[in-house]
Each structure stands twice: as structure tokens, then as C-alpha cells.
Design goal:
Length: 311
């Protein structure tokens, strides 16, 4: 890296550290990429100074990108220019690619890549906005994806932000009594909970037999990389809590959701053309916003990275 950009990088990291209330960050932790924290919720950073078409081949860059991802839970790698195939290879920087559940959203030439778009409609003609309502991705899988990655291909002029909630903080800020109450609770996740306010698009035929009917995951999970505990709730998919009446379970989950979505836990991503955003489903919830004119197209490529069974 040139001296000047290295100094600039140090300067930006120092500025970032002031904004980052999680304590002083090691300055110049990164030598090949610039990482600027973007919120005080301890989640969200932008990554500058890397062209992923070269970076995917460089082990030092790959290591730093993975570290930035682990430190910040969600990173936006700016100013990228990728084909679908290159996007797939970028996904592999972070691990093996996870086959997504609903193949109706596959990109024809690269079926493991799906798309996010506002151009599909439900059978009754209503526009389908994927990801509206807080959730964590594919928690109805026995081994859910650790990460989801989007690449902005076409964006509306305004709106369409993605909101992220830091679920480490959501857990840490619970009362000790609540932590004790929930410490060993196990939740039943299904494709679509009968209590979900958001309706999903039905699974394409061949996937109905592959996607599990239900799986059980802990309500509090420990992140395998950071060792920290996070709340693992998903209003779209959790249908019940083992050993608990459904009404009580939904009340408890509602209370935990309200607590979690506090603004102090949020990073709100405002998309820029060329952004590659990758987030950690093990310690974040997220939601899309369909708050832009219907005639404007919003289209992103989407990949998922394999994870591990939550414990
Ligand atoms: O479109 C977005 O902003 C997010 C969509 C979403 O929930 C996802 O890709 O998992
Ligand atoms: Fe999602």
C-alpha cells in the first residue's frame, strides 16, 4: 500500500475509533483495506480501498475482510464492479456457499445466486418485498447460514435502506432476571410461523421436500468466533418455545423483540451503487424497507455462506 494511503487509512481509523463507543479500536489493524465504523451500535463498518476482483486472490486481503466482518457484524465493501460469477467468488472469501431455500429466486446463469427484487408479485397481485419485518435468515435450517451477502445492481433513488439490529447488545442489555429466565429455552423454527405478521412466498415445488419441517435452536446462542452470547429470535419463523404455552411464548418473544429493536442497537444501511454488504446472521437481525416508489426497480444479487448449528 502506498505511504500516503496508509497514513490516510490510519487517520480514518482514528476518526472511526472516536465514533465507535465499544472502546478504543486498534489503530492500523488493517494494512490492505480501510475500515471505518459507521455507527455507535457496535455494528456496521464500511470497507474502502479494495477491488474484490483482485482481493479475492490475495490471502492477506481475504484475512482482513474476514476480520472486519467478525469485528463489525456487517460490512459494506464500497465501489465494487462484479459479474454474477465474480460475486460468487467473493462469497467464497467468507466460506462455502449455502444453497438458499426458495429456488424460485435463483439467477438463471448462476443458480446458487439468488436475487432480491421488488418486481415479483403474490398470486393476488400484491407486490412482494422480500425481507420486510425483522428476521435472521433461514433459521428454519438445522445449520443456518452464518452470513448473507448482497450486491446492489439497481437501486431506487431514495429509500430501500436495510436496518440491522445488534443482537449481542440486545442480549447484554437484558436484565439479569430475564437472562436467567431465557438461558436454557429452546425455540421451534418453521418455514413460516403461523404467528408471523409477514407472509413469505411459497417454496418452489422441488424444495418443499428438502427444507426441514421444523428445527429447534436455542433462544440464546454463543457466537463460535467471538465467544459472545446473542439473542437468536426470529418473528417470521419461531412458532413455539419448548415446554411453554404458545400465548406465553409469543408474549415473551414480543417483549424480547421490543427490547432488541431499540435505536441504540441499530445500524441502518443506506445503499450506494457498487456496495457489497455482508452480514452475520448469528448476531444480527435485519429488515428491508419497501418505502420507495413502486415503479423504481430495486435489484440485488444475494448469496449465503454456510454456518454451524447454533449452540
Ligand atoms: O433487501 C434487503 O434490504 C434485505 C433483504 C433480506 O432480508 C435478505 O436478503 O435476506
Ligand atoms: Fe433476510
Amino acid at each position: 500500500m502506498r505511504i500516503q494511503s496508509f497514513l490516510e487509512c490510519r487517520r480514518q481509523l482514528s476518526l472511526g475509533a472516536e465514533k465507535y463507543s465499544g472502546g478504543p479500536m486498534a489503530v492500523a489493524q488493517f494494512r490492505h483495506i480501510e475500515v471505518n465504523p459507521l455507527s455507535s451500535s457496535h455494528a456496521g463498518a464500511e470497507v474502502l480501498g479494495v477491488d474484490l476482483r483482485d482481493g479475492m486472490k490475495d490471502s492477506a486481503v481475504r484475512e482482513e475482510l474476514n476480520r472486519a466482518f467478525a469485528n463489525h457484524c456487517v460490512i459494506a465493501i464500497r465501489d465494487q464492479n462484479l459479474t454474477a460469477q465474480q460475486f460468487y467468488e467473493v462469497g467464497e472469501i467468507f466460506g462455502d456457499i449455502f444453497p438458499q431455500h426458495n429456488s424460485r429466486f435463483s439467477v438463471p446463469d448462476c443458480p446458487l445466486i439468488h436475487y432480491i427484487s421488488n418486481q415479483d408479485k403474490f398470486e393476488d397481485g400484491r407486490i412482494y418485498i422480500p425481507g420486510e419485518g425483522y428476521h435472521t435468515d433461514h433459521s428454519n435450517d438445522a445449520v443456518p447460514p452464518k452470513a448473507t451477502m448482497l450486491f446492489a445492481v439497481k437501486l431506487p433513488n431514495t429509500g430501500g435502506d436495510t436496518q440491522f439490529i445488534n443482537m449481542y447488545r440486545a442480549y447484554e442489555t437484558l436484565s439479569e432476571a430475564m437472562k436467567k429466565r431465557i438461558e436454557s429455552l429452546q425455540c421451534v423454527h418453521v418455514y413460516q410461523s403461523k404467528y408471523s405478521e409477514r407472509k413469505l412466498m411459497a417454496l418452489a415445488g422441488e424444495k418443499k421436500t428438502v427444507v426441514p419441517t421444523q428445527v429447534i435452536h436455542p433462544l440464546v446462542r454463543t457466537h463460535p468466533v467471538t465467544g459472545k452470547k446473542a439473542l437468536y429470535i426470529n418473528p417470521i419463523r419461531i412458532e413455539s418455545i419448548l415446554g411453554m404455552d404458545d400465548g406465553d411464548a409469543q408474549n415473551l418473544l414480543g417483549e424480547l423483540l421490543e427490547h432488541s429493536i431499540d435505536l441504540s442497537n441499530e445500524y441502518r444501511h443506506k445503499w450506494r451503487s457498487g456496495d457489497v454488504v455482508i452480514w452475520d446472521n448469528r448476531c444480527l437481525m435485519h429488515k428491508a424497507n419497501g418505502d420507495y416508489p413502486v415503479e423504481e426497480v430495486r435489484y440485488l444479487y444475494r448469496l449465503m455462506v454456510k454456518g454451524e448449528a447454533p449452540v
